[in-house]
Write a structure and sequence with these properties.
Layout (H helix, E strand, L loop, with lengths): L2 E7 L4 H9 L6 E8 L5 H8 L4 E3 L9 H14 L4 E4 L8 H7 L3 E5 L11 H7 L4 E8 L9 E8 L6 H24 L6 E3 L1
Parallel strand pairs: 1-2, 1-4, 2-3, 4-5, 7-8
Antiparallel strand pairs: 5-6, 6-7
Bound molecules: 5-O-phosphono-beta-D-ribofuranosylamine.
């Protein structure tokens, strides 16, 4: 029986597209929902074009009442009965209550070599630090932000003259390789960390 995967996005959903495209053939999982906190998220239209059910709950309508927003989002998610949740460019911090509900079956991709640079502006921070390498990490989501067990990492070189934008573009290519590879392992019950290349 395929594992049911819900993917949460906030924007264009390039990682969501790669995850959805990977879940074919003998892959142990299938996408059952793409949900967003932004009804205008471009990824929702891309998911619909791929024939995946979508849902949106506008977090702005809840004016900072995070638990109320999450309750509305949870209703949409539970209706799809997912086994696994993938956060893919999802830009809302989740409460401990939400995380606990899915602990052990919710994963996220973060654009840094964790534990370096938790939070935002990861590429600029790597450049400011003079790092020679950067990359991305897939990890289990726990109550602490960007802090759960690492399931995979991919590294890229920092090049002379890099800007946050050029580095982000180089890392994004690796995100698109790493996240599908980790999801396939995770869905088959393999939590051994994967390191690329
Ligand atoms: C990616 O860099 C991802 O690491 C970060 O959001 C960016 C956009 O992701 N979390 P996507 O194109 O919406 O998947």
């Amino acid at each position: 029986m395929s594992k049911r995967v819900a993917i949460l996005i906030s924007g264009g959903g390039s990682n969501m597209v790669k995850l959805a495209e990977s879940m074919v053939g003998d892959h142990p999982a299938r996408p059952v929902l793409v949900a967003s906190n932004d009804p205008q998220a471009g990824g929702l239209a891309r998911a619909a074009q791929m024939g995946i059910a979508t849902a949106a709950v506008d977090h702005r309508a809840f004016k900072g009442d995070r638990p109320a927003f999450e309750a509305a989002l949870l209703e949409k998610i539970e209706a799809a009965a997912p086994d696994i949740i993938c956060l893919a460019g999802f830009m809302r911090v989740l409460t401990e209550g939400f995380v606990r509900r899915f602990e052990g079956r919710m994963i996220n991709i973060h654009p840094s070599l964790l534990p370096l640079y938790k939070g935002l502006h990861t590429h600029q921070r790597a450049l400011d630090a003079g790092d020679t390498q950067a990359g991305c990490t897939v990890h289990e989501v726990t109550a602490a932000l960007d802090d759960g067990p690492i399931l995979g990492q991919a590294r890229v070189p920092v090049m002379a003259g890099d800007t946050a934008e050029s580095l982000a573009a180089r890392v994004l290519v690796q995100e698109h390789a790493l996240y599908p590879a980790v999801l396939r392992r995770f869905a088959s019950g393999d939590r051994a960390p994967l390191y690329l290349p």
